[in-house]
Amino acid sequence: MFKVGKEEVKAIEEVVLSQKYFRFQGENVPTNTSQCEDEWREYLRASYCLLTTSGTNSLVVGMAAFGIGTGDEVIIPSYTFVATASAIMQVGAIPIIANIDHTLTLDPNEVRSKISPRTKAVVAVHMDGLICDLDSLAKICDEHNILLVEDAAQACGGEYCGQAVGTIGAFGGFSFNVDKVISCGEGGLLVVKDEKFHEQYLKSLVTHDTACQFGRTLKNKISSLPKFFGLSTRLNEINSAMLRVQLQRLPEILNELRNLKSDLMSYSESIGLTVMKGHDDQGDIGSVLHVRCQDPVDTMEKSKVLLAEGFKAGPPYLRPAHACWQWFEAMKEGAYFVEGLNPYNLSDQTYSYTKQDFLSTLEILGGCLRLELNFLGDQERVELCKELLKKIAAK
Ligand SMILES: Cc1ncc(COP(=O)(O)O)c(C=O)c1O
After folding, report:
1. 75 near 115, Cβ under 8 Å?
2. Domain boundary at 190, 212, 246, which?
3. Are 260 and 379 in contact, with CB atoms under 8 Å apart?
4. How far is the CA of 390 from the centre of ligand 1 (A)?
5. Which of 96, 152, 207, 312 is deepest in the core (most CB within 10 A)?
6. What pLDDT does residue 11 have?
7. Is residue 277 located within the same domain as residue 237?
8. Is residue 302 part of a domain?
9. What pLDDT score does 395 carry?
10. 191 in the same domain as 118
11. Which atom of ligand 1 is nearest to the CA of 127?
């Protein structure tokens, strides 16, 4: 989260004093949650938006609503937060990992090589605000009649060719946990662009709040659906009130982040550093700068220069749960949060993942210096950062 102030406090205070914490207050009665969803729909130009308790839950609810489940395979990148894989397993499907390329996002050729008759979806993850090659991925998905899903947890406000990320695939998920560009503590958003997926949206509504089938508020809206048990992943009014204020701040934050990143990118390139880029420089949210290094040793040496001055820098795999080999251990038969429901136990296929299959990812991540641009508005830090980049370039 980059900015927070008294406006958030006031919005939360109003909810607390009203004692109306629940997202539903009667049929067609606007609440902070419903208005926040409307505001997101307008901002993203999407047909449907559904707030949830987390980014992970937005993916779980979306996958369930779009029919991804037992026996299905879902292709994900080797560089993503563990939640992308865990959400897939929570609906009973199997994550199939494809290597990234130097854009730090899914390599479309790798995706092609992983497609099997069981493939149901590809999840494009816009890591660190870098935008995926959505044209190529959409083409592959169309050819094979599979779903393109966007995990835009780390790219809120990002764009691909002028269109909001999260609205390009069949559905997208955002996260509003504290590490994200805007936050309400914890929260998530499921986004569905196309009106043709109205039925899936209704299913996601029930899935995110199983109890809504038994109350009056949504009775008419969801009457076409058969009764089924879902989850309880509703966002509450306190979080929604805060998120509404944060959403208002988003354009300004993005503007500042993009200006800062573009300044640091031009500077880095002017002193001979190579910046690693995604597939849409304008649409990149600007939260992280990635400098290409020669090898892991070079990356560590350069990182130390920035770390010594308190910058958050290092190869991406030093983060605890973002490189696929960090979560292999949980992707196999055996331990699972619901005993007996482990998708690997239930599958008639055998799946195994080894680090050797991801040597190219290891090489790419090892040769990448990831610098978080968490010093918005602090010109002294910007100048210091430039000084240190110059030192690094001379190494
Ligand atoms: C790429 C990615 N996907 C999904 C998530 C899950 O979001 P949450 O922590 O809100 O469940 C995160 C969170 O950091 C993420 O980075």
Report:
1. yes
2. 246
3. no
4. 33
5. 152
6. 98
7. no
8. yes
9. 77
10. yes
11. 1
Which of 191, 223, 246 is the C-terminal boundary of a domain?
246
User: Three-class SS of residue 172?
Assistant: strand
Other beta carbons within 10 angstroms of residue 136's beta carbon come to: 17
Give the range of the structural domain holding residue 186, as residue numbers without chain letter: 6-246
Same domain flag for 228 and 255: no
- Statement: the pTM of the whole predicted model exceeds 0.85: yes
Q: Contacts by 352-356 with C-beta closer than 8 Å and gap 24+?
A: 353/97, 353/324, 353/325, 353/328, 354/328, 355/325, 355/328
332 located within any domain: no
CATH of residue 125: 3.40.640.10
How far the first Cα of the chain sits from its last, in Å, is 33
Atom of ligand 1 nearest to the CA of 177: 10
Q: What percent of the chain has pLDDT over 70?
A: 100
User: 259 is written with which tokens?
Assistant: 């200006």
* Single-letter residue type at 47: S
The residues lining ligand 1, judged by C-beta closer than 6 Å to any ligand atom, are: 54-56, 80-81, 83-84, 125, 151, 153-154, 175, 177, 179, 188
Cα(303)–Cα(361) distance, integer angstroms: 19
Closest C-alpha to 221, from 206, 211, 241: 206
Q: 31 and 130 share a domain?
A: yes
Q: What is the pLDDT of residue 148?
A: 98
Exposed e or buried b per residue across 85-110, where buried means at least 16 C-beta atoms within 10 angstroms of its C-beta: bbbbbbbbbbbbbbbbbbbbbbbbeb
d(CA 260, CA 341): 47
What pLDDT sits at residue 161?
98
Test site for ligand 1: of 51, 156, 175, most ligand atoms within 8 A of the Cβ = 175
pLDDT of residue 355: 94
Are 211 and 184 members of one domain?
yes
The reported pLDDT for the residue numbered 33 is: 98
All residue ranges of the chain with pLDDT < 70 are none
DSSP for 331-370? SSSS--SSTT--HHHH-SS-----GGGGHHHHHHHHTEEE
The predicted structure's pLDDT at residue 255: 98
In terms of Cα–Cα distance, which of 104, 149, 113, 116 is closest to 284?
Answer: 104
Residue 233 Cα to ligand 1 middle (Å): 15
Residues 181, 166: Cα–Cα separation, whole Å: 15
Alpha-carbon distance of 343 to 336, in angstroms, equals 9
